[in-house]
Amino acid sequence: MIRNYFKIAWRNLRKNKIYSFINIFGLAIGMAVTIIIGLWVHDELNYNHYFKNRDKIAQVFQTQTFNGNKGTGSAIPRPLEMAMREQHSDKFKHIVMSSWNQPSYLEYKDINISKNGNSMQEGAIDMLGLKILKGVKDGISDRYSIMLSASTAKALFGDEEPIGKIIKANSQYDLKVTAVYEDIPVNNSFSDLDFVKPWDLYANSMDWVKRSIDSWGNNSFQLFVQMNDDQTLDDLNKQIERIKLDAPGAEDTKQYNPVMFLHPMDDWHLRSEFKNGVKTGGRIEYVWLFGIIGLFVLLLACINFMNLSTARSEKRAKEVGIRKSVGSSREQLIRQFLGESLFVVVIAWVLAIIIVLASLDGFNKLASKAIEFPWTNPSFWLASIAFVIITAVLSGSYPALYLSSFNPVEVLKGTFKAGKLAHLPRKVLVVTQFTVSIALIIGTIIILKQIQHTKNRPIGYSKEGLIQIPVMSQDFLGKQDIMRNAFLSSGAAIAMSTSSSPTTNVWSNRSGFLWEGKPDGFQEDLAWVEVSPEYVSSLGLKVVEGRDFSREFPTDSNAVLLNKTAVKYMGLNDPVGKLIRSDDDGEDEPMKVIGVVEDVIMQSPYEPVKQTIFVFDRHGNASYYNLRLNPDRSVSQNLETIEQVFKEHFPNLPFSYQFVDEEYAQKFAAEERIASLASVFTVLAILISCLGLFGLASFVAEQRTKEIGVRKVLGADITNLWMLLSKDFLTLVAISLLIASPLAYFFMQNWITKFTYKTNISWWIFLMAGMGAILITMITVSFQSLKAATANPVKSLRTE
Amino acid sequence: MIKIKDLEKYYRTEEVQTVALNKLSFEVKEGEFVAVMGPSGCGKSTLLNIIGLLDDPDGGSFEFNGIEVSGYKERQRANLRKHNIGFVFQSFNLIDELTVFENVELPLIYTGVKPAERKRRVEEVLEKMQIMHRRNHFPQQLSGGQQQRVAVARAVVNDPKLILADEPTGNLDSSNGNEVMQLLTELNEQGTTIVMVTHSEHDAKYSHRVIRMLDGHKVTESLLV
């Protein structure tokens, strides 16, 4: 019996090639999209699964209140570590202080490479469960030791034995390699942990770190913990929330009402957005969004299947009648049609797997992922089987129930005509399809518009032809003037400045200042950038009041520039000449405001520019050289020369640089990824819907062949007939537009509120989406309509 | 074998109700060959569909082999049908996607006959209908007469007690028509009961008894043998 079913299914597929193509290809695309999204969602949900203690690992976060605005972040002060150890060490297996992930130069013989890593306390290795490939587990117990990732060890030593070798870090310390650990895979936090250095070394190397040992106000470090197995997050959060507030010596920070809490590792990747001190979600929203899109695309493909099967019902009615008359029960027919559906779904699934395999690389690039096809994962195959069965039932049940319900007498007599109501479900399905497609079009346009809107925002400086060279090693100390002269005289650069933060970020925020007219109880929070006098001119910042820094004025060593937002924020009416003092010790000379510059976007382009103070860099705290390339020479020529100059002065250091415009573009990467994914899925959704529409149109045209013939004989012209055949579909698409518009508006309005600097959802978006949908419908349907309308009426009448 | 009493059937549309069968009563004994005649719309096909358990009567009783079947559920009817009744239609009603062999095999599949046995029986009946050489052809590749022979083969392959033929020669020329009638006669002689609806006086002559209908009821009944 089953063989008989498949035989018929196969012959039916071969006989109706267009129909089969639409069904199988459409379904395969839908399934491929769902599989790819499924793999992506799986990858997202499995973030940090490399760490076996992940359900017990957390990072200490704090929420502070500045002028009524709560801000949450991971930066914590150093004394917190001791307080935690003293008061709560019995509740934690590990308490681990860590620096930020920073680049270091690692040098062995004539190899010098820049790698990223953290300085961490000893428990880190056990907490993260790093897999030691060589050497010892407690590899950072000695101050002058270092543990390397396998790839870092390979880069430094090649095939040489790394354990016991001495390498130089940042041209400063000789560190002994004590262990090599397995590289941490990409979909994990710490995946860029190329090395681990001892916290002890870090804490004792730099003055500002040493000074911070008892400073509750200097939030510049990270603290990780691993809870004991019997502890719960909620309990611990209650116990530590006041730890900073109640700490002796932390009185100065009380005004910011610091609340400490544990942010669990399971939430780091997907739920790391905080608004007003409350966790509001994060990337998980996109996981949901794409999960839903995946299901929708599959639904669209299933709808095609249902629609085309039922549209073809009149052709298969006879078969149903015959089978019933020779003894088939309704259940057997239902089984037959479900079997056929399963057959088609299995073919589509095989095709979908091929499509997935072919497109996975491209998708990985688009989504910035390293997803592999899970050949050996039994859950994937089990899920696939379930997925195939569900799809088969979903897409086959309606046709099966519908077709098997035919009255054999009517269909065999040839009097069978699908009732008026039979078309209703089909229409509802088409409307569903186009509602989803149009909503996706609208959503995608709004995402793209938001990105464009933000890109068009004036950034306040000229980023073209600007490069930044990271100079965070000790080697560069005190060399900035020499280097500026060298770069300028080489002819490759026309300007150079230094800054303590890259042009595209701010690494330091400060508070605790006094100025004339400061409102009582005002809790300021200023972005702090230390710069050389050429900063404004080299970047092309615009001075709107007062003057720029100048080497001509020795007093400028105490000078600062404010951005426009800072002037407003601090409530300065006539800022130039105003003095700003530090409120903790009176010894430092006050800083004098010499000018105001136009706002510059350094942080998120979606947020308002932060109040920023640009400080004359007296201490040589440069982290970056900013070079404006010579526009009269080619970029490659300039870079070649700059590298030569660099190597002349720092022969042992690797030369690395970043284009500022590329760095800035990075800020849009996340949203652009979303936009590209959404665009791809939208196009596929439209394609699938159109395939279905095309199939339906061809069946309708076929069904009405006789009517068209009669109308033609009676004098209808092609336009009349085209209208006749197309208007039903256009009506359906118009209804879809009416449903999709408010839905899309609601969801996108919600999405866009997360941006402060946001575009408006204009009426023309809906108009455009609607016109687009109608145009696509017309093109799709017209092909069939015109074919039917131009056919010879004698021929169509003969079909009777 | 068939006992019909006061059988009624109506067709309703939104505005009108048409009476298809109006208190119709008659019997068919086992081994009989009965022809039902009458003008178009007199209810003869409706009658055939009810006897064939494809349709429900609206009133009256219908006994098949002594059992009242008019209230049977879909599943019971399908079961009774596949074991006892074979159909021959005017328009052949072969499944276009199946070959001759597969079309004839279909009833055996539904009655759960094993593949080897199916093959034997299908070949036997194809041989008997002299259509064996066309076994792998599709219906569209056959002439009308050949198609109807396949349809008859399909109707008898399960050894039904009753064959219902709805104008079996209506789509055939006279020589093919005669061949089909000859086939039916042979089947009847071998013991199969046949009820045939026809317009053709010529075909009716092959039967034992002719029931003439008009407007849903019996007007005359004449014995031919």
Describe this structure in words.
The complex is a heterodimer of chains A (800) and B (225). Chain A is α+β, with helices and mostly antiparallel strands and 800 residues long. Chain A is 49% helix and 18% strand. Chain A contains 25 helices and 26 strands. In chain A, helix 15 (423-455) crosses helix 24 (763-789). Chain A is elongated, with a radius of gyration of 34 Å. The model of chain A has no long low-confidence stretch (mean pLDDT 88). In chain B, helix 3 packs parallel to helix 5, helix 4 packs across helix 5 (144-156) and helix 5 (144-156) runs parallel beside helix 6. Chain B has one domain: Rossmann fold (3-Layer(aba) Sandwich). Chains A and B meet through helix 1, helix 11, helix 12 and helix 14 of A and helix 2 and helix 3 of B.
Concise description?
The complex is a heterodimer of chains A (800) and B (225). With 800 residues, chain A is α+β, with helices and mostly antiparallel strands.
Chain-wise SSE layout:
The complex is a heterodimer of chains A (800) and B (225).
Chain A: H1 2-15, H2 17-45, E1 57-66, E2 69-73, H3 79-88, E3 92-98, E4 102-108, E5 111-120, H4 123-128, E6 132-135, E7 145-149, H5 150-157, E8 166-169, E9 173-181, E10 195-198, H6 199-205, H7 207-211, E11 222-227, H8 233-240, E12 259-264, H9 265-268, E13 273-275, E14 278-281, H10 284-311, H11 313-325, H12 330-367, H13 378-404, H14 408-413, H15 423-455, E15 466-470, H16 480-490, E16 493-499, E17 509-510, E18 513-515, E19 526-531, H17 535-539, E20 543-546, E21 559-563, H18 564-570, E22 579-582, E23 591-597, E24 612-616, E25 624-629, H19 635-649, E26 658-659, H20 660-666, H21 669-703, H22 705-713, H23 718-752, H24 763-789, H25 793-798
Parallel strand pairs in A: 5-10, 7-9, 19-24, 21-23
Antiparallel strand pairs in A: 1-2, 1-11, 1-12, 3-11, 4-5, 4-8, 6-9, 7-10, 8-9, 13-14, 15-25, 15-26, 16-25, 17-19, 18-22, 20-23, 21-24, 22-23
Chain B: E1 2-12, E2 17-28, E3 33-37, H1 44-51, E4 59-64, E5 67-68, H2 74-84, E6 85-88, H3 100-110, H4 115-128, H5 144-156, E7 162-166, H6 174-189, E8 193-197, H7 201-204, E9 209-214, E10 217-223
Parallel strand pairs in B: 3-8, 3-9, 6-7, 7-8
Antiparallel strand pairs in B: 1-2, 1-4, 4-5, 9-10
